[in-house]
Amino acid sequence: MRGLNLALGAAGLAAFLALGEAVPRLGLVKEAYFPPTSRIAGALGGELADSAFWTALGDTLTGWALGLAIAVGAGIAAGVLISVVPYLREATASTIEFLRPIPSVALIPLAVLLYGTELRSVLLLVVYAAFWQVLIQVLYGIQDVDPVAEETARSYGLGAWARVRHVLWPTALPYVMTGVRLAAAVALILAVTAELVIGAPGLGARIAVAQTSQAVPEMYALIVVTGVLGLLINVGARTVERRALAWHQSVRGEVAV
Predict the structure, then answer these.
(1) How far apart are CA 174 and CA 163, in angstroms?
(2) Helix or strand or coil: residue 166?
(3) Among 49, 142, 194, 203, whose CB has the most other CB atoms within 10 angstroms?
(4) What is the value of pTM for the model shown?
(5) Cβ–Cβ < 8 Å for 154, 98
(6) How far apart, in whole angstroms, are the C-alpha atoms of residue 193 and residue 185?
(7) What is the chain's pLDDT, residue by residue, as a tens digit (257 residues)?
């Protein structure tokens, strides 16, 4: 079954690439706006041979990784604290519901005003967007804790942090891993967006330069790179999730199937 899925995925990708080659060659769209797949592949090869490309890739991954790490740490800590401290969840509910829907891109003027085109501008946007993905999942996960298990832990004299470790955390971990996976994807989107709009160093800024200089094949090649990067991040996040939740019924059922 796994081999069949891989074969079907490869066939679908091959068909997509062939379509990308044929559409401009047949004159259905202008090559100046949408180059054939072969030209994009050639431009991609040129990018891979350019040291500036790897520097830009490193800048993007740095902003993504730092922002994601800060967001995950802050989201988990805040979620546990809000859930454990009595009445704190009710006190913060309206504030969370007010701040969470604010689009991160709306903070771009603030980021530019505070930090210009530095890495900190990218981090501000990435952290703000990814933080909510983790926080909300942690809150939902802890809310799902079995009251009987909680009361049993109390009856055995477990302290607050012992209950967090042995009762709350195992229940919330599947939710946390989902939040981390979502946050990883959102963090990449905001990192590239920040570079594209603000001009911070990275793949986004390189895409903007290619677009303004009419280097269309190079622009598409860089877009392909961001897509592949997103795919690798998603696959990596799912792998980590499966390993972290190897004991959980959902993962054991997935493996069994």
Answers:
(1) 17
(2) helix
(3) 194
(4) 0.86
(5) no
(6) 12
(7) 666 777 777 788 888 888 888 888 888 888 888 889 889 999 999 999 999 999 999 999 999 999 999 999 999 999 989 988 888 888 898 999 999 999 888 899 999 888 888 889 999 999 999 999 999 999 988 888 777 777 777 777 777 677 777 788 888 889 999 999 999 999 999 999 999 999 889 999 999 999 999 889 999 999 999 999 999 999 999 888 888 887 766 655 554 44
